[in-house]
Amino acid sequence: MSETFDWQEKIYPKKVKGKFRTIKWVLTSVFLAIYFMLPWIKIDGRQAVLFDVPDRKFYIFNIVFWPQDLFYLAILMLFLAMALFFFTAVAGRLWCGYACPQTVFTDLFIAIERCIEGDRHERMALDHAPWTMKKIFEKIIKHSVWLALSFAVSFTFVAYFVPPQELGWRIANGNLTAAHAFWLFLFIATIYSFCGFFKELICLVPCPYGRFQSALCDQDTLIIGYDVKRGEPRGHVKKGEGTTGAHGDCVDCSLCVHVCPTGIDIRNGLQYECIGCADCIDACNSVMKRVGKQEGLIRYGSLNIFNGGSTHVLRPRVVLYAFILVVLMAGLLYKVTMRTPLEIDVIRNRHALYQKTADGKILNIYTIKALNMDNKDHSFMVKVDGIPAKLMIGNNPIQVKKGEVYQTTVSLAIDEKATTKKVSHFAFIIEDVDNPKIKARRESTFLAPVMGFKEEVIWKQKNRSGPRQ
Ligand code: SF4
Ligand code: SF4
C-alpha cells in the first residue's frame, strides 16, 4: 500500500452523483431515521430503548437487562467483533464507506457546507478570498447549522440514557444536572469537531480499524480498485474527441481524486486512506459515459481480479469467522430465549444456626430476595425441594412488582427426630403461579444438631429403610 496522504492539505470533495452515491444517501436516511426516532418510540408507556444507568436497567423493546445480564453484553461484543472480522475479510471497508457514524455524519456536514458555500471550486475560492461580509455571513450560517445538527445528534444520543421528554424539559427550564450538561456538551463538541473540522483525519489517524484492516484482508477481499491494465497509459482527451488508441481508458481528468473525501488517488493502488466510499467509482463512471467507454474502470473487485485472476469467496479464514459467528449467534439466541426474568437470593440467618422448639422441631431461618426483572408484575409460589421441611412464610404466593425486589423471611421446620445429618442440602424454588416456566432455584443448607447414637438407633427402628442420606 502506498502512502500518499498530505496531512496539511485541506480537502474539498467535489459533489458526485451516481448509483453508489444514491445507495449511500438511502442508507444514510434509513440510519438517521432509526437513530433519531428510536428514543421517541414507546412500548407499554415506557421508552422502547433506554439505558437507565442510575437504576442499572437496560430496556431493549420487550426485554429488560439487569446487571446480572452482563453475560449477554459480553457475548454481543464478541459477536460484533467477529462480525467485523468476517465482513472485513469478505467485503473490505464496506462498514467504513456506508455505515460508520463518522462517515454518515461527515457526509451530512459536507452536504451542508456544499449547500451554503458551493461545490469544490467555490469553497476553495471562498477560503482563499479576503474576509468580506458575504464570506463572514456564509461562514456564520454554516457553523450555526453545523452546531444545530451537532446539538440534535448529541440530544438524541443522551436521550438513549435520559428520556427525551425529561431532557427537553430540563433544557427548556435550565434544570440540567451536571452529568446531563457534561455529556450533552461533550457530544456537541465531539460531533462538531469530528465531522466539521477533522473529517477524514478521524478515519486516518485515531481510528484503529483502518490500520488493522490490512491484517484482516487478503487477495480475495472486496476492495475498490483501479483497473491498471485497462486504464494505462492514461492521457488527456478533449471533449468530443474520443480516445486515439494510443491511450488506455483513463483520460486523466482527476475527477476521481477531486471527489475523494480523503484526497487520495485510487490509481496509485490500494491505500489504507481509502475508506471505501465508492465516490470515485461514480465519478469515473460518469466520465466513461461521457467519453463513450465502458463503465467500471474504477470498480469493486479483489486484488486477484484486478491482477487477472478470480476471487474465492470461501476461504479458510472466512469459513472460520462464519462458523464462530453462527455459534455465537446460536448461543446468544438460545440464552435470550431461555432467559428467565427472575432472580432469587437466599441468605441464612447469621445469628443462630438453628433453633429448637418446645414441640421437638428444628428451625432454620432464611431471608429470601426475589428480583422480578420482567416488565410486568408476577405472583411467585415459594417451594422447598430436597428436604421434608415445613415451610413457614407470611404470604405464599408472594407478589413481586415489575422491576422490584421482594424480600421476606421464611422458616423451615423439621421434626428433630427426623434430622440425621448436621448439614442437609436442599433448594428454594420460586415459580410463577401462571407460567411455571418462569422459575428460579437457589441451593441452600439446613443445619441441625447431630443425633446422639441412642436416638439414631430408635430412629432406624422406626424407619425400616434406614437413615436418610
Ligand atoms: S479512493 Fe475512492 S473509495 Fe477510496 S476513499 Fe477515495 S473516493 Fe472513496
Ligand atoms: S475519473 Fe476515471 S478517467 Fe478520470 S482520472 Fe480517474 S480513473 Fe482516470
Structure description:
It is a single chain. By secondary structure, the protein is α+β, with helices and mostly antiparallel strands. It has two domains: 1-40 and 92-308, no CATH class; 342-462, Immunoglobulins (Immunoglobulin-like). The chain is 43% helix and 19% strand. The protein contains 16 helices and 16 strands. It has helices at residues 19-37, 70-91, 94-98, 101-117, 120-128, 133-159, 164-172, 178-198, 200-204, 208-216, 228-231, 255-258, 279-290, 303-306, 316-338, 453-462; strands spanning 42-43, 46-47, 49-52, 57-60, 63-65, 223-226, 298-301, 342-348, 355-356, 361-372, 378-385, 390-393, 398-400, 405-415, 423-432, 439-447. Strands 8, 9, 10, 12 and 14 form a five-stranded antiparallel β-sheet that branches. Strand 3 and strand 4 form a beta hairpin. Helix 4 (101-117) runs antiparallel to helix 6 and helix 4 crosses helix 8. The longest helix is centred in the first third of the chain and has 27 residues, at 133-159. The radius of gyration is 34 Å and the shape is elongated. The protein starts with 18 loop residues before the first helix and ends in a 7-residue tail after the last helix. The relative contact order is 0.11. Residues 1-5 and 465-469 have low confidence and may be disordered. Residues 224, 259-262, 264, 266, 274-280 line the site of one iron/sulfur cluster.
